[in-house]
Amino acid sequence: MREIDSNEIRKGVRDLTIAAAHDLEPDILEALRGARDRETGELAGNILDLLLVNAEIASRERIPVCQDTGTGILFLELGQEVHIRGDLNDALQEGVRLGYEEGYLRKSVCDPLTRKNTGTNTPAVVHLEMVPGDRLVIRFLPKGCGSENMSSLVMLPPAAGTEGVVQHVIDRVVAAGSNPCPPMIVGVGLGGSFEKAALLAKKALLRPVGVRSDRADVAALEERLLREINARGQGVHGFGGINTALAVHMETFPCHIASLPVAINIQCHAHRHKEIIL
Amino acid sequence: MSLLRGESVFFDNLPEVRLPFTPEALASLKAGQLISLSGTLYTGRDQTHRRLCALLDEGKDLPVDLAGQLLYYVGPSPPRPGRVIGAAGPTTSYRMDSYTPRLLALGLAATMGKGARSAEVRQAMLAHGAVYLAAIGGAGAFLSQCVKKSELVAFGDAGPEALYRFEVENFPAVVINDLDGRDYYALVAAANKKGEG
C-alpha cells in the first residue's frame, strides 16, 4: 500500500489547469506545423501561422491560448494499491477552483436551468478508473464548448455497418462546419453502451494527436475517415483547403448484438491537455 | 503594416478599417476579405443577448445605442494585474442567431464571431444593411494584444458574458457576409461542390 496525500493531488490539479490553458503540448503543436507545411491556401496558411504565433504568445505572456478555458474534465487512473489520505473528490475540485482563480482563467460553468455561473469553474467532471499498481495518473482536458457542442451520439442499427459509421461521422463533421474551430481532432467512440460510447469518444482525444489505433482495422478506418473528411474541402476555419481535421482517433468496445452506438466528440485546434503521475 | 508587430510578417498590407464603420467602409467590404479593424466595438454573448432582448420586451432603453456599431461575440478571460484583458477570441455565433434580427432592426451595423449564421440572420442583414465578420477562433492570446482598452458597460454580474466596450487596434477579421448578400462559407462550399462535380 502506497499513501498519497490529498494535498499533493490538489496542488497537482491546480498546476495542471494553469499549464493546460497556457502551454500547448508538443503533439498538437507538431500537428499544426504539419498542417501549415501541407497547406496551399493563402488565407488558411496565414491563419495556421497565426495559431502557431498565438501558442507562443500564450506561453510567453501567460495569456490563455483561448478565452474558453473550458469545463474541467479529469481522467484518473488510480492504482488499487494506493491509499489516499484525505478526500479525493474535494482535492480534485479544490485544485480546479484554485487553478482557475490563480491562473486568471475564465469560469464558464453554470447551472443548466438558471444559467447562473457557479463562479469557480467547478464542479469539474471526473472519470475514475481503478487499475493495477501503486500510482495515480491524472489527465486534465479542459474542453471548450465551440467544439463540444458539435458532438453527437447515435444508436445505429447493426445493419448500418462500417459504411453507416463512416457516413455518420462525415455528416456530423460537415454539419459542424467552422463552428468547432477546425482544424479539429475527431474522437469517435464505437460500441459499448449509450454512455460508454460517449466516454470512449472523449478518451480518444487523450491519445497523442495522430497516433493510430493498435487495431489494424480500426487504424485503417481512422485513416479513411481523415482522408474523406479532408477531401470535403472545408479547411481551416471553414475557409477552404485540405486541413479540416488533424486526426481521427477511434476507440472501440464490444456492444450488444442489437446495437451499434457511435459517439463523436470533436476537439478544436486549441487542444489543451496535461497529465501528471503521482 | 504587419499585425504581428515584430513577431513575423504575416498579414501584411491588409485593408485597415476604422470602427465604427462609415457607410462607405461598410459597403466596401467583400466576402472572403481579410481586414484589420481599429477603433471602438461592443461585446456580448449569450447572457448579454438574452438581457438586451428582455429589455426590448419590456419596452425599456438598452444600456448602449448599438446603431452603426459592431457587436463582437466574446467572453474574455480575466486580465492579469496590469493587463487590459485576458484571452479575447470569438465564440460561436449561431447561439446568438435567435436574438440577432432584433438588434439589426435597431441599426446594429455588424456582428463578429465565428461560424455560419442562420438564414433568418442573413436575410435580416440584407434587409438592414449589415455585415458579419469572423474573428480568428482559438487565437485568444494574440487577439488579447489587439485590445487596448476595455470598459464595462452593462450586466457586470454576468462576468465574462457582460457587455464591454473595447478599443481595438489592428484586430484581424474575415468578412463572411457582405452587403451584396455574399456568404464566404457558402462560397467555399459551392467551390468544393464544383470541384467534386
Task: Describe this structure as you would to a colleague.
The complex is a heterodimer of chains A (278) and B (197). By secondary structure, chain A is of the alpha/beta class. Chain A starts with a strand and ends with a strand. Chain A has eight helices and ten strands. In chain A, the strands form three sheets. A four-stranded mixed beta sheet of chain A has the order 4-2-5-10. A four-stranded mixed beta sheet of chain A has the order 6-9-7-8. In chain A, strands 1-3 form a two-stranded parallel sheet. The mean pLDDT of chain A is 96. Chain A folds into two domains: 2-20 and 65-143; 146-271, no CATH class. The longest helix of chain B has 13 residues, at 184-196. A five-stranded mixed beta barrel of chain B has the order 2-3-4-5-7. Chain B has helices spanning 23-28, 46-57, 100-105, 119-128, 140-144, 184-196; strands spanning 16-19, 34-43, 70-72, 110-113, 131-134, 147-154, 163-177. Chain B has a single domain (16-196), classed as fumarase. Chain B is built from six helices and seven strands, in the order βαβαβαβαβαββα. In chain B, helix 4 (119-128) links the parallel strand 4 and strand 5. Classes of the chains: A alpha/beta (278), B alpha/beta (197). At the A-B interface, helix 3 of A face helix 5 and helix 6 of B.
